[in-house]
Specification:
The protein contains no helices and ten strands. The chain is mainly β. Strand 5 and strand 6 form a beta hairpin.
Length: 127
């Protein structure tokens, strides 16, 4: 899922080159916390927050291109942010990574959009 906003900023990512193959590391980036993952020599950047119940994906598992949420095992593809199984039914945001003069940058919206609640948590009806 891409966040469409006209204003973006490029945030430097110090130390991204030290992420090992199959590893991941969270970085603060403006109003976001971005999770950078290295798979098959390529770097990918996604929102570090699960779309189901806002758990930190950096505390989960990365196997191939799939990251698994530590809270309820929802899975996402780090290449495009798509959800791969319940309980999540919404994708996570992906972010563009660039390299300029040997430094790595992530492009994020200048402001975080208002929350758009997905599946759960929600109030359960009383009986």
């Amino acid at each position: 899922m891409w966040l469409f906003m006209s204003e973006t900023i490029d945030v430097p990512l110090a130390g991204v080159e030290s992420i090992p193959e199959g590893g991941m590391r969270p970085f603060p980036a403006g109003a976001f916390e971005v999770l950078v993952c290295r798979v098959r020599g390529e770097l990918y950047a996604v929102d570090n927050t699960c779309s189901h119940q806002e758990a930190k994906l950096c505390e989960g598992r990365l196997v191939g291109y799939r990251i698994t949420c530590p809270k309820h095992s929802a899975q996402f593809d780090i290449r495009d942010g798509s959800h791969k199984n319940p309980p999540a039914y919404k994708a996570i945001a992906t972010f563009e990574l660039t390299v300029s003069d040997g430094a790595h940058y992530v492009r994020v919206p200048a402001r975080k959009p208002a929350p758009n609640p997905g599946i759960g948590p929600w109030p359960m009806p009383r009986r």
